[in-house]
Amino acid sequence: xxxxxxxxxxxxxxxxxxxxxxxxxxxxxxxxxxxxxxxxxxxxxxxxxxxxxxxxxxxxxxxxxxxxxxxxxxxxxxxxxxxxxxxxxxxxxxxxxxxxxxxxxxxxxxxxxxxxxxxxxxxxxxxxxxxxxxxxxxxxxxxx
Amino acid sequence: xxxxxxxxxxxxxxxxxxxxxxxxxxxxxxxxxxxxxxxxxxxxxxxxxxxxxxxxxxxxxxxxxxxxxxxxxxxxxxxxxxxxxxxxxxxxxxxxxxxxxxxxxxxxxxxxxxxxxxxxxxxxxxxxxxxxxxxxxxxxxxxxxxxxxxxx
Lengths: 144, 152
Known about the structure:
The complex is a heterodimer.
Chain A: E1 5-19, H1 28-35, E2 44-55, H2 68-83, E3 86-87, H3 88-91, H4 102-113, E4 120-127, E5 133-137
Parallel strand pairs in A: 1-3
Antiparallel strand pairs in A: 1-2, 2-4, 4-5
Chain B: E1 13-25, H1 34-41, E2 50-62, H2 74-89, E3 92-93, H3 108-119, E4 127-136, E5 139-145
Parallel strand pairs in B: 1-3
Antiparallel strand pairs in B: 1-2, 2-4, 4-5
């Protein structure tokens, strides 16, 4: 017999955005040394791929941890519409002070999505390119 | 948190085998009105059904046998997956032809859990660590043991 099982559901979303890695409190040479090409003053962009993982009890009436009819509009509203085809440094308020590295984008996405009411947000995983990915996993007792 | 996934002990290795199968399903709850079924399940409520190319990744964790260098024989795992999963589900209608899913909505979540229950007793070398079932490249469910019992 199997013991208790844990089920999670992961959905992938995509958005394309531009950014620039640059900190005003660093000198130009420091910015160039730390961020390299990513510090180009005109910015550059990526096709981001975002995996959102939620977990919780499977509702016997629906067979679901979360209904995509609820998850998709929530993620699209909180993240995709806010980030897609935007210049993150200037068009997403949270990145006016915070450098929009993929790590910080993960944090901001996690902060926005943990309010999802129907299941517990377990992880966000962001691929900036097919070669680089970043994950943030919340604590089990994360307050919603 | 990864539930009860085997912690990265020194010599613990995870081995993953992938298979694909194609099956039909639809979502319908007899206790719901037609309008409710449509509202909750959307296009998936179409009673004629629709299908997917499912991709299943099965992960077994264990310490390699010093004699063979293997956690388990992948040929053996391949045969188990063929018998327990492909023979039951490939080119089948999940609502009608799979007793393990009887009375359940055949969602990714429920299919992954059913596959876990089929495989767990059959894996005798190593320990079943994770069942990951892709319904499409953009949607998958993971099933692991829940050490906390939080979602039993």
